Amino acid sequence: MNLSPSPVLSNSFRMETVGMDALMVRLFDAIDEAHMPWILAADKALRERLGEALIDLVPSYTTLLVHYDVETLSQIEASRLIREALQNLQPASTAAGREHRIPVWYDDSVGPELSRIAERRNVDTDEIVRRHSGRDYCAFALGFSPGYAFMGMIEEALATPRLKTPRQKVAAGSVGIAERQTAIYSMRSPGGWNILGRTAVKLFDRERDEISLFRPGDRVRFEPISREAFIEQGGDTTPLEER
């Protein structure tokens, strides 16, 4: 059941038990950028209502994972507080999300799928870069690795399935797409996304006040830069290994 935007979600959302001390709150069933104001509003309301009994809260595309202290709350009590928090919920303003400009060196040596996608679309690589960097993306959720943000939605013309065989090593800073999502690898790791380029921006830094650069609800735009500018910013030009 897809939920249309409504000022009252208390009778529409679903709760699912995912552990002895965790409940999944499902507001929607389909990914849609229009849902983000509701996710953000629910995040704020749940944090305020559960207070010190809340251990962790993880918002995602359509859900919020609520991890609560079982020494403070029973599951029945946690469920009651969640329902109270979401009663008469109003969407949050997306203006609260921060804006980020991420410089990216788009190049075949660090983005092997750049030319491949261009060939499949019967355009040149400049057109792929123009389309990928030509819009703002919403950071829907953090996960996979520290600081890694799932962002969307890319235009239909760029939508590309994940690689059939994932790479064993994808360099930190690699910018990729999968289906209608885009993301930046926050650290070197295995991965199956289609890589278009690389950024020198650090997404995860324990020395910062906020160790993750992105938060759900932030807006991100990619800005093409030259190889020289990428090097000046401290970028690593080591070619991405083939699978």
List the helices and strands and how they pair.
Elements: E1 14-19, E2 22-26, H1 36-50, E3 54-59, E4 63-68, H2 75-86, E5 99-106, H3 113-121, H4 125-132, E6 137-142, E7 149-152, E8 167-170, E9 174-178, E10 181-184, E11 189-191, E12 194-198, E13 219-224, H5 227-232
**What structural class results from the helix and strand content?**
alpha+beta
Highest CATH level, the class of the largest domain: Mainly Beta
Strand order within the widest sheet?
5-12-9-10-7-6-13
Number of domains: 2
The helix/strand order is EEHEEHEHHEEEEEEEEH
**Biggest sheet layout:** 7 strands, mixed, barrel
Radius of gyration: 20 Å
Strand content: 25-35%
Named CATH architecture of the largest domain: Beta Barrel
Query: Low-confidence segments, ≥5 residues, pLDDT <50?
Result: 1-10
Separation of the first and last Cα atoms: 39 Å
- Global geometry: elongated
Helicity level: 10-25%
Give the integer mean of the pLDDT values: 90
Q: Can you identify the CATH superfamily of the largest domain?
A: Cyclophilin-like
Describe the overall structure.
The chain has five helices and 13 strands. The protein is α+β, with helices and mostly antiparallel strands. A hairpin with a 2-residue loop joins strand 1 and strand 2. Helix 1 packs across helix 2 and helix 3 crosses helix 4. The two termini are 39 Å apart. The N terminus is likely disordered.
